[in-house]
Design brief:
The protein is α/β, with parallel strands linked by helices and about 300 residues long. Helix 2 packs antiparallel against helix 9, helix 5 crosses helix 6 and helix 10 packs across helix 11.
């Protein structure tokens, strides 16, 4: 197991099986990640891509939770602390549009590279797969998910539906489910979409780890050169059929969509978080968006 100063991402290689395992290891926050964690994850993926002896990478989360996505304890923290010590700008000013575009372009470069990753990616998904965690789960080539895993894009409730890898959502989920999840921010159980074949295998939670390892070992027996060629062919087909404009559209609309103005009565997460703290802001968010089902 590779350890670093930041042990919130773990990296292990089984050279006999030709499988690398990357584990998000931030269980106290349900394996949410900040920029440094995501960058470390990206570096480990680059290491796998450059290693001719590794054919498969298994993505997972510690303690039975895949990931709840980006850490929202500091929503603007993703854009850096520019202006903090600048007398011309208030300490907590909103990031400029140019800053948003620069940072979001880099952020979505990570997801773009994961979708086009040259080795087989296997997702071991349980507990929660929300936000960026949901995106990564959908981007894996082979995905094993527990039926009771909660999936969705709840951040659309305070950042707007023009969020995330839109091409990927429509391609993998289909337009009906993509619109439902993005326009409502609903969190659903993976078992609800089992019949759609969104994931490779949906099973009981206690079987996820073994089943994901099974698929990883199965894929790792394939000819390494053949797999890389196939992955490039798959990417070419997806680009021509589904992902044209994906690389630009994702970060462009995310940058614009996170610069919203809120009318009276609309829920402003950033303002609410500043007033009440993150945990209470999430509770108030869910309270605001709750609509009882008709009897």
């Amino acid at each position: 197991m590779t350890t670093t100063a930041d042990d919130r991402v773990l990296f292990d290689v089984d050279r006999d099986k030709r499988i690398a395992t990357i584990t998000l290891n931030n269980p106290k926050q349900r394996n949410s990640y900040d920029a440094s964690m995501r960058n470390l994850l990206g570096r480990y993926l680059d290491e796998v891509a450059e290693d001719d002896d590794i054919t498969v990478v298994l993505l997972r989360g510690a303690d039975g939770v895949f990931s709840t996505g980006a850490d929202m304890n500091n929503a603007y923290g993703w854009y850096g602390d520019e202006g903090k010590d600048d007398e011309k700008r208030p300490a907590k000013s909103r990031p400029s549009q140019r800053r948003r575009l620069t940072v979001d372009r880099k952020s979505f470069g990570f997801y773009h590279n994961l979708m086009g990753f040259p080795k087989v990616t296997v997702g071991e998904i349980s507990g929660y797969a929300l936000g960026g965690g949901f995106e990564m789960a959908l981007m894996t080539d082979i995905s094993v998910i527990a039926r009771d895993t909660r999936i969705g894009m709840p951040a659309t409730r305070f950042l707007g539906p023009a969020l995330g890898s839109l091409h990927m959502f429509f391609h993998r989920l289909g337009p009906v489910q993509a619109r439902r999840l993005l326009l409502t921010g609903d969190i659903i159980r993976a078992g609800e979409v089992e019949h759609l074949g969104v994931f490779t295998e949906t099973c009981e939670a206690e079987k996820v780890t073994a089943r994901a390892r099974y698929w990883a070992e199965k894929a790792a027996k394939m000819p390494a050169d053949g797999v890389v060629i196939a992955k490039e062919a798959f990417r070419l087909v997806e680009q021509s059929q589904a992902y044209q404009g994906e690389e630009v559209a994702s970060y462009l609309f995310h940058a614009y969509g996170t610069n919203l103005q809120f009318a009276d009565g609309e829920f402003n997460f950033v303002k609410t978080r500043a007033q009440h703290g993150t945990k209470e802001a999430f509770r108030l968010r869910d309270q605001h968006f709750h609509v009882p089902e008709p009897e």
